Amino acid sequence: MAATLMRSEGGPQVAVFEATGWDTHANQGGAKGTLGQRLSGLDKALATLATELGPLWRQTTVMVVTEFGRTAAMNGTRGTDHGTGACAFLLGGAVQGGRVIADWPGLSYGALLDGRDLRPTLDLRSVFKGVLDEHMRVDAKTLNTRIFPTVMARAPYRTDTRLILP
Length: 166
Fold this sequence. Notes:
With 166 residues, the protein is mainly α. The chain is 27% helix and 6% strand.
């Protein structure tokens, strides 16, 4: 439905999807477990979006994000608990992909935040900021004063890792 709306004359340029059921504290399992099944469903949904957008996919940037990370180690019920560090996936025809952009802190006990969480190295809002700048062409003043006023000084987006094709 979103692809149909976005393809239509004068249709929206932005769509937001919410997928629930990711808060899996127990029995996450491997490829056939709860988490693997959720990831498979996400993969199918993104593939369908790409197919349904047709030629518009070449101009599309999709961000897959979560509001919380998971712990690095499995808990006692073969799952993971809420954690700090997470990841974001950027995909679409407008994305210069095929790489991981990260400062990898490691998974040793000493590298973990509080001995349990992947240590965050980049403010997720800075990724949003980069996409709004490079893809949606939102001007710097608006980004820094109206959309992300608290991010400007603390976490500017990384200009050394252009995300979007020119």
